[in-house]
Specification:
This protein folds into 3 domains: 2-61, no CATH class; 69-180, Beta-Lactamase (2-Layer Sandwich); 212-417, Histidine kinase-like ATPase, C-terminal domain (Heat Shock Protein 90). The protein is rod-shaped. A 5-stranded mixed β-sheet has the order 5-6-7-9-8, with helices on one face. The chain has a 4-stranded antiparallel β-sheet with strand order 2-1-4-3. It has 12 helices and 9 strands. By secondary structure, the chain is of the alpha+beta class. 58% of the residues lie in helices and 17% in strands. Helix 1 packs antiparallel against helix 2 (33-61) and helix 6 (182-254) packs parallel to helix 10.
Length: 418
């Protein structure tokens, strides 16, 4: 149709210019050379625009809007030469390929699949909103593999319309596009592989950063635990030993027998301090706590003081290690604070459980302090930290002249409570 229209246009220009002009000039016996040259110039200038116009008309009226196979291939090859500002190929070339494949064949939809890492992945679809998987296609689906030097780079898939089945021209167009698309898909695959590697590297960097953060947090937690264990364990034993030695020194002149008794009691205190330091050097909890539980560990630890200490273990039983450690060190801290500051004659430590939570109570009959006062020091903070770490509650109650009471309650895990 385009060729026929072109011939008609050329003949019309020749008749109008050469013959019509000859009539006007009164020379009809032979063609005028000047008019012939003019007709040739007009045909040369207007031929390509006219052919383009005819192709668009034929495309819209006769081919249902589809472009001719020649136009599709020409447009696709031209697009391959286009580059971005940085010299790389446009990122949407794969989408252009799918669009030209769909419009050139008049297909219902067209897809470009890319082989990345040995797996086919959809890279582009035209039209973008095509319902590919939602319904059974009315026409057949045609596939062509895209190869480059024998390597499979991807696949072109086209679904023909039910009212416009493919003919030899459409089949040939799909084949030709698959032949021409090798370099394009090769570049697209390189981009996809680079993007995937960049994503993997970013994920590994995030994982490494998270791992380092966890390691730093673990080190900080272990350092704080060791500091608390030293403060609540070995330091308290040594402080009590110093207090009792000073007491013995004071009693030497006034009550030698009492002084000798206090000094004799310090043998057990020294042994307990040495055992605690050894346990800490091994990174372990006190051996009695690990083997026998809170009550037995407290009875072994709270010896050799000038104050009478009573430990009441009302059927506490064995608990998870972190809960036993929190109760043990909290009790040791509370007792040592009372020994140093309360001037108490008796300190009572009670550990018990009602099946739902474990409870620790340390009370003394010392001088106490006003409830609004802040006893300060690191000891109170350490006790709170230990109980908070096992999701427990901590309270310190006191009244001037009536001693003080430390109460800690810790919820038990379901498997322990049941």
């Amino acid at each position: 149709m385009v060729t026929l229209g072109t011939l008609v246009a050329v003949a019309t220009v020749y008749v109008v210019v050469v013959l019509g002009g000859g009539v006007l000039l009164g020379r009809t016996d032979s063609p005028n050379v000047g008019l012939s040259v003019l007709a040739t110039v007009l045909v040369a200038l207007g031929l390509e625009p006219w052919r383009t116009f005819l192709r668009s008309v034929v495309t819209q009226r006769l081919d249902h809007g589809r472009r001719s196979p020649y136009d599709v291939l020409s447009g696709f090859i031209e697009s391959l030469t286009e580059v971005d500002d940085d010299g790389s190929a446009p990122a949407d070339l794969v989408t252009r390929l799918a669009r030209q494949l769909a419009t050139g064949t008049g297909a219902s939809w067209a897809q470009v699949w890319l082989s990345v890492g040995g797996t086919l992945e959809p890279a582009a679809t035209w039209p973008p909103d095509a319902d590919i998987g939602g319904r059974v296609p009315t026409g057949g689906i045609h596939s062509r593999d895209v190869l480059l030097d024998g390597e499979h780079l991807g696949t072109l898939r086209v679904c023909e319309r039910g009212d416009a089945p493919f003919g030899p021209i459409e089949e040939r167009l799909v084949t030709d596009l698959a032949t021409q698309a090798g370099m394009l898909l090769h570049r697209a695959r390189l981009r996809a592989e680079l993007a995937r590697r960049a994503t993997d590297l970013a994920l590994r960097a995030d994982e490494l950063q998270e791992s380092r953060r966890r390691l730093v947090d673990a080190h900080d937690v272990e350092r704080r635990r060791l500091e608390r264990d030293i403060h609540d364990g070995a330091q308290q034993h040594l402080v009590a030993l110093v207090v009792n030695l000073r007491l013995a020194q004071t009693l030497t002149g006034r009550a030698p027998d009492r002084a000798r008794s206090v000094l004799a009691e310090q043998v057990d205190a020294v042994d307990a301090a040495i055992a605690t330091v050894l346990d800490l050097s091994r990174g372990l909890y006190p051996r009695a706590l690990t083997e026998h539980g809170v009550g037995a560990a407290l009875r072994g630890a709270l010896v050799g003081t000038s104050v009478a200490i009573i430990v009441e273990d009302d059927g506490l039983g064995r608990l998870p290690a972190e809960i036993e450690a929190a109760l043990y060190f909290c009790a040791v801290e509370a007792v040592q604070n009372a020994v140093k500051h309360a001037d108490a004659s008796t300190i009572t430590v009670t550990v018990t459980s009602d099946g739902l939570e474990a409870r620790l109570e340390v009370r003394d009959d010392g001088r106490g302090f006003e409830s609004t006062a802040d006893p300060g020091g690191h000891g109170l903070g350490n006790m709170r930290d230990r109980i908070d770490a096992v999701r427990g509650r901590f309270a310190l109650q006191s009244e001037a002249g009536r001693g003080a009471r430390v109460v800690a309650t810790v919820p038990l895990p379901v498997e322990v409570a049941s």
